[in-house]
Amino acid sequence: MNLSVSLYNFCDTLPIAFNVERWRSTPIHNARVGGVPISKHLTGEAIDLSFDTVDDLHKAAAEAYRQEFPGIEVDLTNNHLHIDTGPRIWRVVKQADH
User: Fold this and answer.
1) What are the backbone dihedrals phi and psi of residue 71, each rounded to the nearest 5 degrees, phi first?
2) End-to-end CA distance of the chain
């Protein structure tokens, strides 16, 4: 899977309003936002999206799962969706535990 193309296509066709919060990061920006040293954002293999409603977040997460993205994290505390190359499969954050 060419994740950069797949992520672009996912964002381009998602029929829901969203904001791209983070895609590719430099090591300096990654450290500034608290990213781990081996973050997939450093290679452009991860994207963070935010949504206006939890319903939109759920729809986008279901679509990411349908498109077989291997790494999906749903953060219900701020309507945030993280997608990457894995190996993590569904992680749901219901409170500020990260």
Assistant:
1) -115, 115
2) 28
Contacts 24+ apart (CB under 8 A), 87-92: 90/65
pTM above 0.90, yes or no: no
Q: Dmax of the chain from CA atoms?
A: 34
**Which pair of tokens denotes residue 93?**
């954050």
- How far apart are the C-alpha atoms of 89 and 64, rounded to whole Å? 11
pLDDT in tens, the chain (98 residues): 566 778 888 888 899 999 999 988 999 999 999 888 989 999 988 999 999 999 999 999 999 988 888 889 999 989 999 998 877 666 677 765 44
